[in-house]
Amino acid sequence: MKNYYSIGELAGYQNISKQTLIFYDKIGLFRPAYVDPSNGYRYYSPKQIDFLDTILIMKKIGFSLEEIREHMKNYNLENSTTLLRGQMEVLDEQIRELQMIRSRLLQRCNMMDEARKYHKNPIVREEVKEQYILCHPVAEPYSLSEVSIATKQCFAQAEEEGLPIFFQTGVINPLQHIQQGRYMETTWAFLPVEKGAAAENIKKLPAGECISIYHFGSYDTIADSYQKLLEYCRQKNLRILSDAYEFCINDYITSSDVNEYITKIQFYLRYNISE
Q1: Cα–Cα distance between 207 and 241 in angstroms, integer?
Q2: Do residues 132 and 228 both lie within one domain?
Q3: What's the structural domain count of the chain?
Q4: In a domain, 228, yes or no
Q5: Which of 68, 116, 139, 186 is deepest in the core (most CB within 10 A)?
Q6: Within this chain, do residues 48 and 144 fall inside the same structural domain, yes or no?
Q7: Cis amide leading into 37 (omega within 30)
């Protein structure tokens, strides 16, 4: 038709699919100016190009199709300005959240890079800063299945309550279990969280001096690393003051190969009570 665009032509001009235009027609967002009754072909007028531009721009900005449809029923300078300023606030919040996620991802990557440095000499004596962990109890018999359930409970609570977690998991192994050789019977699962997160089951780990060992490989062989660290403490006459905190540095989240797993086992040797 003269002075009209076919659906294929309009889709080509806007770099969208014909299916998109058909969908917009079906939901009443953008209807063709004319539909040929003999074959059902859709045609669009030149004036509609600007209207479609507005729809695509609003979609790019982040508005839903329903929001766009309601706005386009009767839009003017005033209500458009109000709508755009509101969307700026939404985008600002998204930017803050993405920056927070990026920061946590960077921390996770740095931890994995740092851990690989200790493959030959896995024992580390270090000062640690205070941190906070969201904890859930592991049910008896404390198998890996119960640990997995408790970990999922941590994630579910964090999601439900909007708690600022890091992309890391861990478990707590009581010192009594370790002294009895029960190296895999952990009683708590945890997720590190940011300071200020509010929940009754958040535990503060104080700053202090710790002795740690990086365990490389399957969790099934973690007893070897515990025994190596305990023997080191005996030789150095170091007194362990805490349960063991196992931090998963590389696990199922970042590798499908258990031989690449890295677990950091950490004991306190001294607490900085003043902090």
Answers
A1: 13
A2: yes
A3: 2
A4: yes
A5: 186
A6: no
A7: no
